Amino acid sequence: MRWGSLRLRLVAAGTIALLVALGVAGFGMVVLFKRHVARTLAADLDIHLRQLLNGLELDPEGRIMVSRPPADPRFTVPLSGLYWQISDDRGQLLRSRSLWDAILPLPIDEPGPTDVHQHELAGPDGARVLVAERGILMNPERQSRVRAAVAYDLDGATSAVRTFAKDLSIALAVLAFILAVGTSVQVSLGLRPLAVLRRGVAEIRSGKRRHLPVEVPTEVAPLVEEVNALLDAQQREITRSRSRAADLAHGFKTPLAALAADAARLRELGQLELARNVEDVADAMSRQVDRELALARLRGKVRGGPEAATELAPLVDALLGTLGRTPAAAHVSFDGAVPPGMRLAMDRTDLAEVLGNLLENAARHAVSTVRIFASVSPLFVSVEDDGPGIPDAQIGRVLERGGRLDEQGPGSGLGLAIVQDVLEAYGWRLQIGRSELGGARITIAPALTSAAGRPAPSRQRKEMRSILTAG
């Protein structure tokens, strides 16, 4: 998908928002878990410290002793990560078995009997430990001060936080993937009405319908109503233009008939040069009037509805059958291929006028062969011959608006000029190139088709319906 795609932008924006939200949430959860671990650890140390202080006694000689050590068995396992230590101001030192031969390097401090001080120290083997300590007076008479401390190895807590963060990252990654897929599905569902509108516009362009479908969500309904109103206004304008052009063209019929009669009388009077000049002017004006009448009729049919589609193969058969009986095509053989059932979104009369002119031109200039070929994907129809072709210098002039390939030759009298007018009215275009037969190849295709005129693969040609009508 291109960055200009609305779907890509919405999915990307939604996914980025999800990733940011999940990242912030994950970071916050890790911080909260870390704080929870710290609070739990502090509470456990406080419980162990109370148990240790409750088990302290003085022997008859006034020395401190632990009559009831804390119940946690880790205090008896060397280097287990949970330690206690007791000292007094006379230099006596008691330690848990878990400390083995290590001593907790407590800082210089004098915690009170109701105060619990916490420190982070280097414990056994250099491990970081969290220490909670309190100070009490065991013998008020002698002012014997005792300092009790309980320590917990922080490596275990850090490992727990790290494991939680890892597990949380995996869970959030899975959740992010699921939410990203959900976002993509949600965007696709949200943009589905636009796809319906696109298909509706394509059907209007192809003549299958007159208006966009109105069964759309409320948010899109105003756009559909405006487009349908615009189509109605366009149709009314086309109808008015058609009527004006037809009225104007018919208005010239009577004066042209009078000019023709005057030319005949002049010829009877022997004024042949003047009669010929009047006839030439009348013929030129008559051709222009015929062209305008044809265009007026055409404007009324373009985008006329589903009935405007014409099946191509029967029409080509009829045209080739008719053309094959004319003197201009007596020396020409026709062949080609048209997919069975292929339909073009044109009125039958207009399509016959286009293909008839192209086939007639090709037959007039061909040496012996004229070929017509059609393709559905990409959509195009091409007519080629084995004649001299069209010089490159003439192609640009022929394709200019109003340009003509042959203004004087036989045929319908409208030539490529009216062919281009018909094609432009239907949103098609005409291309002129060099045929594989050596002559000209004229291709007609929708204006949005990217590769009109490319020959189909041989396998595709075999699957198409062969046309061998006249020869």
- The total count of helices amounts to 9
- Which structural class is indicated by helix and strand composition? alpha+beta
The spatial strand order of the largest sheet comes to: 13-14-12-11-9-15
CATH architecture of the largest domain: 2-Layer Sandwich
Give a verbal description of the structure.
The chain has helices at 6-54, 154-205, 221-268, 272-301, 312-323, 348-365, 392-399, 415-425, 458-463; strands spanning 56-58, 64-66, 82-88, 93-95, 117-122, 128-139, 144-153, 310-311, 333-338, 343-344, 369-375, 380-385, 428-434, 440-446, 465-466. α3 packs antiparallel against α4 and α4 (272-301) packs parallel to α8. The chain contains 9 helices and 15 strands. The model is unreliable at 407-414 and 450-471 (pLDDT under 50). 50% of the residues lie in helices and 18% in strands. The strands form 4 sheets. A 6-stranded mixed sheet has the order 13-14-12-11-9-15. Strands 4-3-7-6-5 form a 5-stranded antiparallel sheet. The chain is an alpha+beta fold. It has 3 domains: 8-159, Beta-Lactamase, CATH 3.30.450; 221-301, Helix Hairpins (Orthogonal Bundle), CATH 1.10.287; 309-466, Heat Shock Protein 90 (2-Layer Sandwich). Residues 188-239 form the HAMP domain. Residues 247-450 form the Histidine kinase domain. Keywords: Kinase, Membrane, Phosphoprotein, Transferase, Transmembrane, Transmembrane helix, Two-component regulatory system.
